[in-house]
């Protein structure tokens, strides 16, 4: 089972404590080492807890960029209200922890337990450890407890020269039970079928897109109280920068347009703890140190995603349903209006 090292951190925290708190800190070296082990355990738990949510965020942000590969008219503007519907799979809703995973905490009951990820249920177990003469006791964080996650966002596009289209996606921060989610980004779509008259005559459309998006998902995390003050790690954020390439093709059948797409995305995933700083910050800059340590679990994710869609035209309005599939399933429903 995984063992976490903490010696480099102990040196960092001792130096920081001496520089910032000379004459004010009475903690002994042993207690500083215990704080180091506590933070190492928090890093281990952070990785297991929030990674499924950031993986899911990639799928949520990837969907719906191309609503049609058709060539846009110059300066045409389309505005759309999207509702994203994400299904959380059982395999990513929980994980198992063992006493051997930890260097500071231990389970109060048994040697192993199944606990929820950020996508999981409300089940909790108690962990405890000893910091100096003080016992630290905490409950593991709850998950969203939502098998289906739905949230709205706005998307707009502007027709440019040479069959190119600017696409912008934005959602305000949406509260999703113990979680906040936000996505925004932009992309450029270029119509390819304009170069093949035979495709145009058959109402077959092809396009490619390059896009960037930023996803920010945050969860309530560990509210730890000690005799030295609160630790201030009661919120954890997953920050995801996704770069996406997409190829799409569609065929019109009267008022219907059927579309298929393939997406390749690279996502840089970062983590940080936030929220109100703890009172322990009067002694040790804990959030700053922990955020520095979180760099060790930063990730790069590569995803291959398929997408199928069907759209129905009603004058200047379009109604569309999109299904993205791969590791996860994500559905996107939108109402679009064309200004021209």
From TrEMBL:
It holds the Pfam family DUF6588. The keyword Signal applies. Residues 1-27 form the signal peptide. Keywords: Signal. This is Uncharacterized protein.
């Amino acid at each position: 089972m995984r063992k976490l090292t903490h010696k480099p951190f102990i040196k960092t925290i001792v130096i920081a404590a001496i520089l910032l708190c000379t004459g004010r800190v009475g903690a002994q070296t042993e207690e500083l080492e215990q704080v180091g082990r506590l933070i190492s355990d928090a890093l281990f738990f952070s990785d297991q807890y929030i990674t499924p949510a950031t993986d899911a965020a990639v799928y949520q942000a990837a969907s719906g960029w191309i609503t049609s590969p058709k060539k846009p008219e110059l300066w045409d503007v389309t505005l759309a209200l999207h509702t994203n519907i994400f299904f959380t799979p059982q395999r990513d809703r929980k994980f198992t922890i063992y006493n051997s995973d930890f260097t500071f905490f231990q389970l109060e009951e048994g040697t192993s337990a199944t606990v929820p990820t950020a996508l999981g249920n409300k089940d909790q177990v108690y962990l405890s450890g000893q910091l100096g003469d003080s016992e630290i006791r905490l409950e593991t964080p709850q998950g969203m407890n939502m098998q289906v996650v739905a949230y709205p966002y706005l998307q707009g596009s502007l027709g440019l020269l040479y069959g190119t289209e600017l696409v912008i996606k934005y959602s305000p921060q949406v509260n999703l039970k113990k979680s906040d989610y936000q996505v925004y980004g932009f992309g450029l779509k270029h119509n390819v079928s304009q170069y093949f008259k035979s495709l145009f005559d058959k109402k077959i459309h092809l396009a490619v897109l390059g896009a960037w998006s930023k996803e920010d998902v945050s969860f309530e995390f560990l509210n730890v109280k000690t005799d030295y003050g609160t630790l201030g790690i009661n919120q954890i954020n997953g920050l995801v920068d996704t770069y996406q390439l997409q190829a799409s093709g569609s065929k019109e059948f009267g008022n219907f347009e059927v579309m298929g797409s393939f997406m390749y995305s690279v996502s840089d995933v970062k983590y940080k703890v936030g929220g109100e700083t703890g009172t322990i910050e009067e002694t040790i800059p804990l959030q700053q140190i922990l955020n520095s340590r979180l760099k060790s679990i930063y990730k790069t994710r590569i995803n291959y995603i398929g997408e199928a869609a069907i759209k129905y035209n009603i004058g200047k309005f379009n109604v569309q349903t999109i299904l993205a599939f791969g590791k996860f399933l994500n559905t996107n429903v939108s109402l679009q209006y064309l200004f021209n």
